[in-house]
Amino acid sequence: NHAVRGLAHLHRLGIVHRDVKPRNVLISFSSLGGTRAMISDFGLCRKLPHNRHSYTAMSGIAGTEGWIAPEVFNQDRKVVNFYCILQKFQ
């Protein structure tokens, strides 16, 4: 839930991460027994210009093979790939 909210916050700011994968989701365990998931590695992040939804056409496909979101290839922004990453932690 924390990682999903973090990505949603980035998107509200007009920032795309471009390399979300299990290795870039850090899990922190508190001494009280709680856990927290945090997004890391912002090296490929980009701020989208106003009225743009993608950097792909301008800069090519960025990310790690096997973890690139399907919407990068088919332009369907309704596709959600983050679920696959969350499943790796189960």
Automatic annotation (TrEMBL):
Query: Is the keyword Kinase assigned to this protein?
Result: yes
Matching Pfam families, A to Z?
A: Pkinase
GO molecular function list: ATP binding; protein serine/threonine kinase activity; RNA endonuclease activity; unfolded protein binding
Annotated Gene Ontology cellular component terms: IRE1-TRAF2-ASK1 complex
Q: What's one GO BP annotation on this UniProt entry?
A: IRE1-mediated unfolded protein response
UniProt keyword list: Kinase, Transferase
State the Gene3D superfamilies in the record.
Transferase(Phosphotransferase) domain 1
What region holds the Protein kinase domain?
A: 1-90
For this protein, the record's InterPro entries field holds: IRE1/2-like (IPR045133), Kinase-like_dom_sf (IPR011009), Prot_kinase_dom (IPR000719), Ser/Thr_kinase_AS (IPR008271)
Highest taxon in the source lineage: Eukaryota
- Alphabetical list of PROSITE patterns matching this protein: PROTEIN_KINASE_DOM (PS50011), PROTEIN_KINASE_ST (PS00108)
Which PANTHER family does this UniProt record tie to the protein? IRE1-RELATED, NON-SPECIFIC SERINE_THREONINE PROTEIN KINASE
Record's protein name = Serine/threonine-protein kinase/endoribonuclease IRE1
Q: Which organism is it from?
A: Geodia barretti (Barrett's horny sponge)
